[in-house]
Every structure is written in C-alpha cells, then in structure tokens.
C-alpha cells in the first residue's frame, strides 16, 4: 500500500482497518485530504482522553472506532 493513500495514512494513525468490510474501506479510500485530516485529528483527540471515553463506553455500551 502506498504510504500516501488515505488508507495507509489512517493505518499509520492507528485505525483498525482490518475490521472494516470492502465498502467501508472504499469510503475511507475516497476521503478528501481535508476529510482525512479531520478524521485523524478527531482520533487523536479521542485517544488523548482514551481512559475517560473508554469508561463511558464500558458503562453505556457505546462504540467508537
């Protein structure tokens, strides 16, 4: 996979792409550079508050990727 493709950038950012189906991967591979930046930034913010978000998820049964 080319290191500059959206999927490669998402994988480098820590997204678990193996859990996605082909259609989901297709959507992510078609992201614009701006959309990709926003998604990676959001994941970074969620990761920084990981324990807090995880606690809410465990209690409420929510799911975040």
UniProtKB/TrEMBL annotation:
InterPro entries hit by this protein: Aroma_sacti_dom
NCBIfam families cross-referenced by the UniProt entry: aroma_sacti_dom (NF045560)
Full protein name: Aroma-sacti cluster domain-containing protein
Organism: Streptacidiphilus cavernicola
């Amino acid at each position: 996979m080319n290191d500059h493709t959206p999927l490669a950038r998402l994988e480098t950012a820590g997204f678990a792409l193996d859990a996605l189906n082909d259609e989901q991967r297709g959507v992510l591979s078609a992201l614009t550079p701006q959309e990709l930046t926003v998604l990676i930034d959001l994941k970074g913010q969620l990761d920084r508050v990981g324990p807090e978000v995880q606690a809410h998820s465990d209690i409420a049964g929510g799911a975040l990727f």
